[in-house]
Amino acid sequence: MGTKRQKTAHHTINYETLTFDEVLRNVRSLEGPPGEGLIHAWIAEVPASESAKVLSAIREGVDDTVDLKHLKRFVKTANGTLRTLVCSVDHMKRPQLEELLRSVTILNITEELVPGIYPTTKEVSLELSAKYWPISWKGNPLVQELNELKVDVPAVKKNLEYIAKIAKETTGKQLPIVTMMVDSRDPQRRVVSVDSRETNQLAHSVMRCIQEVADHEVERRKLGEERDYLCFGYDVYTTHEPCAMCSMALVHSRVSNLYYVNQSPVTGAIDPQSGSGYCIHRALTLNWKFEAWHWLEELDVDKIAPDVFV
Ligand SMILES: [Zn+2]
């Protein structure tokens, strides 16, 4: 991955441990999608003199939903002709393809396997390129993604210290689990909830927070203020890594960031090392993703029994 640790515009990032400024760890699974992600594509071989023509035919007639932008368009053969990547086989049948290329001199049309997914390492990129069809390698996508993230670390620390203090004040049967949700566009707009499962089994602190944001939202909508998704733009601060139910609710309400202090190694649904390794905030099958962050600096938050679903 090149340099292990690097100072970027916003942070000092360690790309191996995914830590930012040594106090926040970006939580995500580093595994790419399973398999080589191969797809079937149409390859048309044309004389080199036809390159402009074939390109313009593709630009005009192909509107492929399969993303092939990471692949090279042309491969030059030993005898000087050009093998041209046209589109995925799913996008059009052969008669349509021939119709599309009717003004171009075609030497040969074949159906071939090409890499359908941009790889996560240069090594894999080279391997797939040699085996199937060349990829335009533009650097490690993880490094690029991490470099674009920007966190107000002092503000995060302050908010986590605040909920840790409230957790310390819980008494009796209440679990010391506290969540705060802050509207990142208007940080004065915030709600705080303590776990209340002693009165209602499902009253986990995250669920209570979302409910409270929903209640506020109803009031605001009465006043004519329209907003898209329930918690869109909200950042979530919580003392313990949330369970699957709460994590799912955070995905559905479309929060931006989740910050937590203690990992829940048995029942957590965020860290790939926790519980069943769901990593729900980045699940490929769900239509929303958010960033999750584990606070690494010492902060006084009570441990709870490992079998408790936070
Ligand atoms: Zn929960």
UniProtKB/TrEMBL annotation:
Residue ranges occupied by any CMP/dCMP-type deaminase domain in the UniProt entry: 154-273
Superkingdom field: Eukaryota
GO CC terms of this entry: nucleus; peroxisome; tRNA-specific adenosine-34 deaminase complex
Keywords: tRNA processing
Gene3D superfamilies the UniProt entry points to: Cytidine Deaminase, domain 2
GO molecular function per UniProt: tRNA-specific adenosine-34 deaminase activity
Entry-linked PROSITE patterns: CYT_DCMP_DEAMINASES_2
Single GO BP term: tRNA wobble adenosine to inosine editing
Family: Belongs to the cytidine and deoxycytidylate deaminase family. ADAT3 subfamily.
Name assigned to this protein: CMP/dCMP-type deaminase domain-containing protein
